[in-house]
Design goal:
- Keywords: Transferase.
- This is N-dimethylarginine dimethylaminohydrolase.
- InterPro entries: AmidinoTrfase.
- 21% of the residues lie in helices and 20% in strands.
- The N and C termini lie far apart (48 Å).
- The chain contains 9 helices and 17 strands.
- The longest helix has 20 residues.
- The chain has 366 residues and is of the alpha/beta class.
- The protein has a 3-stranded mixed β-sheet with strand order 2-1-17, covered by helices on one side. Strands 5-6-7 form a 3-stranded mixed β-sheet.
- β11 and β12 form a beta hairpin.
């Protein structure tokens, strides 16, 4: 037997361990992130663009420094509780390997330190039996997938398709160096150009054969078009425009919970995309996160960043009673989990996970 054949064993003859077509089929395996060694990234115009003015000030003041140790510890505990809840419901949970995010790296023209390994949803897009590494626009996330590489190699050895989008150069020409917030009423102006394809996986939402995408401060038109061509005729990638002043990731604006059930943030989605007109649409309840709670990289609307375990069970933040009641009103059982400390780092249940396998098949729901 050749060395490669020995390494792969009989995996190529087996079904892929990676298979996922939407956001609601029964969850069987998931990657849950880790917050260990999280650092504020070096200051850069692309880092500041999605943030509020107050958040930008904090990121500038603490650039390159570790996040507060007590907040890291509290978020770590919540991630462990999330993993335990998922495992208790029969879901296989995989975790990445901790890394040193204070280490400097670079290429000709720029250098950076890292951020964290907390949000696998940003890095990895699973479509069918393929897991795709995203070409991320933040220099501090240039090597973010490294912590997940052992898992990706394992999935590949067991039969999954593993793809990486073209690795971006992140040259100065990708960024609008004099970018400023657009005045109220003006169209969105991204901090990134069309120099090369970039996207975060969290700017895409899967509805079976149809995938909705938004341009943002990390995802450009070339990135969306790259994915459209890569996936081919089996999928339809639709670009939607949302009313978000600081867009970065679609999963706190427009979230499908089950076939025909859509959760939206009303201000960002003043008009539901025409393809979803026949779906029942409900507006996310007003967040209950107190003003005193630190949110370094997100708005309070992270409350709608829920994770469907299946069509009838939804992971919800333990203190978010309004979201739990909304789930119940729709015939969905809320599964509460403490996650407010993790929210401080810029995400919630959907961000903190990548669903690797859901039991279902490719079909159209629109």
């Amino acid at each position: 037997m050749h060395d490669l054949d020995h390494a792969l064993g009989t995996a190529t003859a087996a079904s892929s361990p990676v298979e996922c077509y939407n956001e609601w089929d029964p969850l069987e395996e998931v990657i849950v992130g880790i917050v260990d060694n999280a650092h504020f990234p070096p200051w850069h115009v692309a880092v500041g663009a999605p943030l509020s003015a107050a958040q930008r000030e904090i990121f500038q003041q603490r650039a390159g420094q570790p996040f507060p140790a007590d907040q890291v510890a509290a978020a770590r505990d919540e991630l462990d509780q999330l993993a335990e809840i998922l495992e208790s419901m029969g879901v296989v949970v995989r975790r990445p390997e901790p890394r040193d995010h204070s280490a400097s790296y670079g290429v000709p023209g720029w250098s950076s330190t890292g951020l964290y390994d907390a949000m696998p949803r940003d890095l990895l897009l699973v479509v069918g039996d393929e897991i795709i590494e995203a070409p991320m626009a933040w220099r501090s996330r240039y090597h973010s997938v490294s912590a997940f590489r052992p898992l990706l190699k394992d999935y590949f050895r067991r039969g999954a398709r593993w793809t990486s989008a073209p690795k971006p150069e992140l040259h100065d020409d990708l960024y609008v160096e004099d970018w400023t917030d657009q005045p109220d009423g003006e169209p969105f102006r991204s901090v990134i150009t069309e120099y090369e394809p970039t996207f975060d996986a969290a700017d895409f939402m899967r509805f079976g054969r149809d995938i909705f995408a938004q341009r943002s401060h990390v995802t450009n038109g070339m990135g969306i078009e790259w994915l459209r061509r890569h996936l081919g005729d089996d999928y339809r990638v639709h670009e939607v425009t949302l009313e978000d002043d600081h867009p970065m990731h679609i999963d706190a604006s427009l979230v499908p919970l089950a076939p025909g059930k859509l959760l939206i943030q009303a201000e960002r989605v003043p008009e539901v995309p025409s393809l979803l007109k026949d779906w029942e649409v409900r507006v996310a309840p007003t967040p209950v996160i107190p003003d005193s709670h630190p949110l370094y990289m997100t708005s309070k609307w992270i409350n709608m960043n829920v994770l469907m375990i299946d069509e009838e069970h939804m992971l919800v933040e333990a203190q978010d009673v309004p979201m739990q009641r909304l789930a119940e009103s729709w015939g969905i059982t809320p599964v509460p989990c403490p996650f407010r400390n993790f929210n401080s780092f810029g995400g919630s249940f959907h961000c903190a996970t990548t669903d690797v396998r859901r039991r279902g098949e490719l079909r159209s729901y629109l």
